[in-house]
Amino acid sequence: MSEVLVVVDHVDGAIRKPTFELLTLARRLGEPSAVFFGSSDKGGEAAQKLGQLGAEKVYVVDDTEIKGYLVAPKAEALAQLVEKTSPAAVLFVSGYEGKEVAARLAIKTGSGIITDAVDVEEGGVVTQSAFAGNYTVKGKVTKGVPLITVKPNSAPVEEVGAAGTVEEFAATISDAAKKAQIVAQQPRKASGRPELTEAAIVVSGGRGTGGNFEPVEGLADALGAAVGASRAAVDSGWMPHTFQVGQTGKVVSPQLYVANGISGAIQHRAGMQTSKTIVAVNKDEEAPIFELVDFGVVGDLHSVLPAATEEINKRKG
Amino acid sequence: MNIVVCVKYVPDSTADRQFESDNTVDRVGVDGLLSELDEYAVEQALQLKEKNEGTTVTALCVGPEKAVDAVRKALQMGADSGILVSDEAIAGSDYVATSLVLAKAVEKAGAENKVDLVMCGMASTDASGSVVPAMLAERLDLPQVTFASVVETQGDQVRIKRDSDTATEVIGATMPLVMSVTDQTGEARYPSFKGIMAAKKKPLETWSLSDIGVDASEVGLSVAWTEVTETTARPPRTAGEIVKDEDGSGATALTEFLVSKKFI
Question: Taking the CB of residue A292, how many other CB atoms lie within 10 A of it?
Answer without folding.
Answer: 22
